[in-house]
Amino acid sequence: MVVDQLSPSETDRVFHALADATRRDIVRKVLVEECSVSALARHYPMSFTAVHKHVAVLESAGLVTKVRQGRESLVRGDIDRVRAVHRALDALEQLWRDRVAQMEQVLAEDP
Amino acid sequence: MVVDQLSPSETDRVFHALADATRRDIVRKVLVEECSVSALARHYPMSFTAVHKHVAVLESAGLVTKVRQGRESLVRGDIDRVRAVHRALDALEQLWRDRVAQMEQVLAEDP
DNA sequence: CTGATCTACAACCATTCGGTTATATGTTAG
DNA sequence: CTAACATATAACCGAATGGTTGTAGATCAG
């Protein structure tokens, strides 16, 4: 288990990367099966260059990695980054639970 | 339990809203304790207007709600939206688990 | 070898973003 | 009533975003 903590700027990048439907779809695809950039590009109504840029955004967020294989470069999803975002949200939910617990305690103390 | 499914454009907005450290901090604060916009603004090195805009972004993403109380409007975090994002990430992780399960099955079939 | 394919990057463009200042309106305190 | 405070909104600005076209280098197929 990789327990990677995201820095604030990494968190910025990863949420920004996920704030686009095309990029979310790319992540879904490459989590299921690694895929070349041009193979990805065929699925979207935009140029190869646009998809190439989307992959670059995902890569700089750490959500995908690219490995060159011959003339194509294969993109694969990084599940550890997805889990890191997951944990960042867990932290938010924990704040809420702490608050609820505290409110309950105050209510219990003073009837 | 509110099992709210996010539309693609809602998902865009909620991830975009979380892609900024100030906005994430505001969400943390108002999940713990509701807070007026100007009280929030005192915590950040920027104008009231800037913080007001950040709150508007969070509100349009559904991550916070505002309720007017006298001359101030109180901002509170909406934990259900946080949970909805959480579930969106669960869906990504599930793709990964399905893939791993399928790979294991293929390996088991052919020794 | 040659042509097709894939990646990469530069330059450009319209729009959005994240901040500012200024102004108007509503609400409370004294 | 008046002054102080809180919110809201408009106008502006520089930087980043998301797309385009064009060009060039690498690799593979025939």
What does this protein structure show overall?
- Two copies of one chain form a homodimer.
- Chain A is α+β, with helices and mostly antiparallel strands and 111 residues long.
- Chain A has one domain (8-109): Arc Repressor Mutant, subunit A, CATH 1.10.10.
- Chain A is built from five helices and three strands.
- In chain A, helix 1 packs antiparallel against helix 4 (48-60) and helix 2 crosses helix 4.
- The first copy, chain A, binds a DNA duplex (30 and 30 nucleotides) through residues 16, 20, 36-38, 46-50, 52-54, 57, 68, 70-73.
Q: In brief, what are we looking at here?
A:
2 copies of one chain form a homodimer. The first copy, chain A, has a single domain, classed as Winged helix-like DNA-binding domain superfamily/Winged helix DNA-binding domain (Arc Repressor Mutant, subunit A), CATH 1.10.10.
Coarse morphology of chain A: elongated
Distance between the termini of chain A: 45 Å
CATH homologous superfamily designation of chain A: Winged helix-like DNA-binding domain superfamily/Winged helix DNA-binding domain
Overall pLDDT of chain A, averaged?
A: 94
Q: What is the C-alpha radius of gyration of chain A, as a whole number of Å? A: 19 Å
Largest interface: A-B, 30 and 30 residues
The CATH class of chain A is Mainly Alpha
Order of helices and strands of chain A: HHEHHEEH
Largest sheet of chain A: 3 strands, antiparallel
**Number of helices in the DSSP assignment of chain A:** 5
Structural class of chain A: alpha+beta
CATH topology of chain A: Arc Repressor Mutant, subunit A
Helix content of chain A: 55-70%
Low-confidence runs of chain A = none
